[in-house]
Give the backbone structure.
Amino acid sequence: MGKKNQRTSLTEEIGVPYARFSSHNQKEASIDQQLAACRQKAKDLGITLIDSYTDYAVSGKTDKRPSFQRMMRDAEKGKFKYVIAWKSNRIGRNMLEAMMNEAKLNSYGVRVIYVEEDFDDTAAGRFALRSMMNVNQFYSESMAEDIRRGMEDNALKCMVNGSIGYGYKKDTDGRFAIDEKKASVLAEIYQRVSDREPFVDIFTDLNNRGIPSPSGGKWNRSSFHRLLPPNERIRGIYIWGEHRVEGGIPRLISDELYYKVEEVLKTKKTSQGRHRESGDYLLTGKLFCGYCNSPMTGVSGTGKSGKLHYYYVCQKKRTAHECKKKNVRRDAIELAVAQAIKDYALRPESIEWIADSVTAYTKKLEEGERITFLQEKLSGIKKTIKNIMTAIEQGIFTDTTKERLLELEKEQAEVAKQINIEKSNIVSVSREDIIAGMSTFQDGDIHDKTYRIQLFDTFLIAVYLYDDEMKIVFTFSGKNKSISFPLDASVLNKDAQTNPENVFVLPPQRSTKMKAYQP
């Protein structure tokens, strides 16, 4: 009876691996090795891989990588939720590029997971970069307030604010006008969907006719997401933020056809590729069993009441039944980790310590051997050029002198370029800006999903979960330095009596007692 009323199943987590190999560097892991490592990582985390993206003999110094660009386009279309790469240097030509690409993928709802990363060497640098991004966001938000006021005025006049939408164009007065060609395609799509024609047949026909999709490329299943219900703009409703004006823009589809399509979509057996909001596991790739170090993966289960619950389960326990770790509620542990980050990493003394550590690390990089060597070389070249110029001023000027001067000037430019490249890889952010950027996190609400994602991406390397405590490895501490936080495992889930896994709920907000690594 218990098995009938309580079942547990893997929640679908879709991901893709990305691998790159530069032919000039034979010491790098090969494409096959990288893909094998990515597949094993995906298996450990319960992620289903649906495709692979590989670039052969392409340098990391350029983002002109065909498969990488295709992956970014597919990410924007919502084809997967995770990208798994061997190291961050696969994702970008340097740390800054990698982080920017990570941020772009995150904006598409895609999380990046690395198979290998030496956090001991890169922790401070990574944290400095994330701090810089937060600082940029902090300052851009104040500018955004001014921009938003202008957009509010536009909204009151039903003028275009941002994206126009398929089937419309911007008129000379800044208002919405009908794009007749695209509007006719939209009307055709609605009619065919209302007749229950499969999406695959519709987009295949549109592609065969050479009609570009809203993104300008080929049509696919995800191309219909923003065109079909619940998109009410096409009924002539102006929508921007809380502004909603009936008849505020030209109508493209009749109410009768719109509601007919809406009903067809409700009765379809598949979700047309949409990801369920409730199916996201924000700690995927960062949550590990404290007893066996196996990844904890997302599963879902239906209780006696029929309500769907979401958990993290030790992968070794799920597959081999060889670990004692109890399952834990997804929402409870995510809130507990977020609260722990706020309680520890965002204390005033922690912020001060982090700012000092990051600026010290940045200074160390700036004084590194490579840059010092190049700067000394540049200084020597400048000194030689100065000596030649002195000789010229004294009347000593020959073809050999001229040729040597040209060589030195060319070498000077090349060394200066190399120094700039080296410095571009260094994240330079002031102590004051780090403090200001981190302070923006202090007033966030851990129940806000977007805020939790920002906390996990900025501060978290890993969480090792026991039944009575969790050990957190922060980005600024290095992977061998963890901080322990107690957990109250005595509060059982209300379904615990019928749940053989004995799932327990962690209190989302509580004070913490530090056991190790105080800054």
